[in-house]
Structure formats: structure tokens, C-alpha cells
Amino acid sequence: MNDLTLKQLWQQVAEKTNLEIKYKELCAQHSSVETRLKQLEKTRRAEQADVDRLEGRSLAAFFYQVIGRMDEKLDQERQEAYAARVKYDAAARELASIDADLGRCRAVLSRLEGCERRYQEALAEKVRELKAARGPAAQELMECETRIEGIRLQKKELQEAIEAGETALQTAGEVLDSLDSAEGWSTWDVMGGGLGVDLAKYSSLDEAQEQVERLQVELRRFKTELADVEINADLRVAVDGFTRFADYFFDNLFTDWAVLDHIQQAQQQAADTHKQIKRVLSRLRWMNNELDAQLEDEHEKREQIALNAE
Fold first, then answer.
1. How far apart are CA 102 and CA 105, in angstroms?
2. 132-147 as b/e, with b when 16 or more CB fall inside 10 Å?
3. How far is CA 50 from CA 53, 59, 62, in A?
4. Where are the coiled-coil regions (predicted)?
5. Which of 61, 288, 14 is closest to 155 using CA atoms?
6. For the packed helices 260-309 and 136-190, what is the interaxial angle rounded to 10 degrees?
7. Quick one: which of 81, 155, 183, 277 is 20 to 30 A from 14 by CA?
8. What's CA 289's distance to the chain center, in Å?
9. How sure is the predictor about 50, in pLDDT bands with cuts at 50, 70 and 90?
């Protein structure tokens, strides 16, 4: 049994352990989003039924026709139906994203099936070889190599989390840019901007809506990558809030987007999330630097062991 084979098996066992943690996290997310999707589906159907009732032959429609408020009431119901549909579609896309991640995770876990047994068999053989060699340096070197591989795996997991966080951070910045644009146009609108200003404002809001849906997926993936990374409790609370970002954002989104303070509230919420992502990323980069220092120390120890054994 050579060292390379033993290292590869050890890496497979560690990778499988990390994947099982991520898989458990994804399953929990799937259950949560699936439940929310069912609730949103009920709301979507109910809101659309309100629109259909007013557009059809109903007593409610007759009443609003009589009092001359049919157009106003119908516009309100259509806005509510549209808002419900957008939230439902966003949750459906998020669930599809989780399903895709689960599929990829299952495929890798299937490939790694049985790696623990193979590793234990290889390790037992290596131990027998070291005992036969009766060399303390060989045992010490093996322990050092094990620590090095462990640090490298931690760095790999950290890097994956950092990359996921950087992607989410960029999208959060795009959301803020779109909302800043919408705020500017909304300010002009308050001053009597006209149709062109309205079109520009809602175009910016459309962009923000699409970006928020994308950001929700990215935040969820960031949280998944952090599942097997140890961060402090305070930061963990911030991370846990990532999975509900879109829900908070879409709440009252269509109540009255023409009102400037609604846009400003959304800006504050997006800015808070942007700040939280940066805070977690800062911690992850610090942890990565610490691992770099540990890795350098272990490499120096390995070199000294080899030199002293000659």
C-alpha cells in the first residue's frame, strides 16, 4: 500500500463526511421551501380567484360597478394576484435549484460509497508496514502528512464557501444599484416626472426583482457551503436569515411601489444583507489565512523529519 493511495482514500472519506453534512442541510432547505411553496400556491389561487370573480358575473362585481369603483378594486386585486404569482414563481425556482444541488450531491455520494471501508483497510495495511519497519520517523511523518491533508481539505471547504459568498455579494450590490436607480427616478416622479419617469422607475424595479430571485438562490448556496464551516454564533444567526431574504424583500413589494419610502425600506434591507455577507466573508478569509500559517508550519515539520531521518 503506497502513501498516495492512502491519502486519496482519506480525502474521499473526508469529502464524503462533508457532503453528508451538506446533503442534510439541503434536505432541510428542501422541506422548508416545499412547505412555503404549498402555502404560496394557495395564496396565488385565492388572489387569482378574487380577480376572476370581479371580471366575471358576481355580486361583488355588480356592487363595485354600481358604486363606480370597479376599476380601482380590479386594479388592486390584479396587483395582489401578480404579487402572489411572483412570490410563488420565485419559490418554485428556488426549489428547483435545491433539487439540482441534491442531485449533484447524491451522484458524488454514490461514487464515494464504501470509501470508509477501503480507507480502514488501507490504513491497517500501512500500520502493519510501519510496525515492520520499526522506524519512529515513519510514524511521525505519516502523522504530519495526515495533518497537512486535513488542513488542505479545510482550505478547500473554506474556498468553496468564500466563492459562494463573493457571488452573492456581487448580486447584492447589483440589487442595491437597481434600487438606487429606482429611488432616483421615484424622486423625479414625486416632483412630477411623467410617463417616461414612471417607465424608467419600473424598469429599475423589474431588474431588482430578477436580481433578488437570483440572490436568494445564491444566499441559500452560501449557507449550504457554510454548513460544515465553524463560525461564531453571532455570524451563524446572520447566515440563518439568508434563506428567507426573498420573502422579507417581497413582503409589501407591490403594495405601493410608487411611494418613495417603500423603495428606501427595500434599500435598507438589501444594504443590511450586503453588510452581513461582507462580515461573514471577512471571517472566512481570516480563517483561511490562519490555515495558511498552519500549513506552512506542517510543511516545515515534514522537512525536518525527513532531514533528521537521513
1. 5
2. eeeeeebebbbebbeb
3. 5, 12, 14
4. 23-57, 141-168, 205-232, 263-308
5. 288
6. 170
7. 277
8. 23
9. confident
Q: Which amino acid is at 270?
A: A
Q: What is the model's pTM?
A: 0.63
Predicted pLDDT of residue 47: 85
CB 222, CB 168: distance < 8 Å: yes
Q: Which three cell numbers stand for residue 230?
A: 465553524
Three cell numbers, residue 164: 459562494
Amino acid of residue 12: Q
- CA 170, CA 163: separation in Å to the nearest integer? 11
- Report the alpha-carbon distance of residue 8 to residue 115 in Å, rounded: 10
pLDDT of the residue at 257:
47
Give Rg (Cα) of the chain.
28
Position with higher pLDDT, 154 vs 243: 154
Residue keyed to cell 411572483: 86
Instruction: State how far the Cα of 221 lies from the Cα of 243, in Å rounded to an integer.
Output: 9
Query: Which carries the bigger pLDDT value, residue 220 or residue 257?
Result: 220
Give the N- to C-terminal CA distance of the chain in Å, as an integer: 23
Grid cell for residue 71 = 376599476
Cβ atoms < 10 Å from Cβ of 59: 8
Residue among 19, 189, 241 at smallest CA distance from 112: 19
DSSP 8-state class, residue 202: H
CA distance 65 to 70: 5
Give the DSSP per-residue string, 94-151.
HHHHHHHHHHHHHHHHHHTTTHHHHHHHHHHHHHHHHHHHT-HHHHHHHHHHHHHHHH
